[in-house]
Amino acid sequence: MAARLLFSLLLILLVGSHGAFASVQETCAKAMKGSEHKNLESFCVTTLQAAPGSASADAKGLAVIATNLTLANYTAAVATIKELQRRGGWSDKQQAALATCRRRYIEALNVVHSAVHALATGRKQAYVAEMGAVRRSAIDCDDAFGGRGGDDAFGGRGGDAAAKPGEAPLRKVNDDAENLTTMAMLIVITL
């Protein structure tokens, strides 16, 4: 795992040192233009501007940064899920949902590493397909808690600080994971 993370970080340095400069704003605008995810443009700009190396990265470098942010986010999601499981006090249905989320996020981490390799070797279609599978894990986790309707039986536990009564405890985690993955895929599509 550490070797894969090191590879990802080295890829950032390699990609970030080549090519023409593309501003974060330009890249995000181009990636979101004409997509059904136009609402992610400000999320894209804010997220990438906060990332080290983004100011001097070209579009491919920003794609690498977005992918590595996805990797970090999914790793943190697994830690959050483990903590929620450790904390206990969940019904059987909730425990099953947390187990589904943990399994899907761990599976997604393996696929992200494959997507990093696809991006490094210029296989855009493979990257987009793999990141689509990664994105699906956040959706599956949300579905395990009754979906996005918010009228499930999982409110009142408050595992996530942003969770409201009637929402799954991982709603914010899943939303961030889905948004990061979508952002990364849309940037790669424009390359």
Automatic annotation (TrEMBL):
Signal sequence annotation: 1-22
UniProt keyword Signal, yes or no: yes
UniProt entry tagged with the keyword Oxidoreductase: no
SMART domains membership: PMEI
GO biological process: plant-type cell wall modification
Transmembrane regions listed in the UniProt entry: none
Record-level GO cellular component terms: plant-type cell wall
Residue ranges occupied by any Pectinesterase inhibitor domain in the UniProt entry: 19-187
Keywords, sorted A to Z: Disulfide bond, Signal
Single Gene Ontology MF annotation: enzyme inhibitor activity
Protein family (similarity comment): Belongs to the PMEI family.
The protein's name in its UniProt record: Pectinesterase inhibitor domain-containing protein
Organism listed in the record: Triticum aestivum (Wheat)
